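INFO batch 0412 | record 1 of 1 | parsing
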Amino acid sequence: MISESRTGLITGASSGLGAAIALEMATRGWKLAIGARRADRLAETAEKARAQGAAKVYAGDLDVTDDASVERCFAASEHALGVADVIVNNAGASRFHWLEETDIRWLRSEIETNLIGEGTGIRVIEVRLGPALSEFALAWDLAPETMQKRTEHWASFGLRDARMLAQGNLGILMPDDVACAVVHAVTQPRHVLVDTIELQPSVPRRTDADSR
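INFO prediction complete | emitting tokens
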């Protein structure tokens, strides 16, 4: 594993998976550049990261749908910490609607956030997640009957995570599960490429009370 001090830049670090990844890196003494739109929540992540051992933290406003905002954040973080060794392009959002019922502004927002927002010697690692606790689907209708309809629809296409839910597997990944996997991947030796990580919950997560 790579043990030297490193610098990580994480987008969407104000909550959920982004915050968990930042804190996992902080425990290893990394320098961190974190960005998000919600300044108050981002400040909380920065404070926790410092408390958990981050060598230095830069927190800045970042809207990945705005090219100028991306340029400002990268320039400011490089000025504060130097060039990042690892960039975690985590910022994302989603709404679930039938296509014919979807406002074109929602589609544009999702594409700008999830796809557009962001040579030699650069390694790219893809992380594919099953059901995970985050604010990615904050705008979804979570009523039980709607969830059931949505799951049955997805399962009809053979999607793995939907099939698992349809079979009664109520497991869910927690932010720290994802954070550990991401940091494991990016701390491998430089000659090792972890190309794709797929994380799926296999059983409902055990709690301390379950083991008593």
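INFO post-check: Confidence is low (pLDDT under 50) at residues 113-117.
INFO record closed
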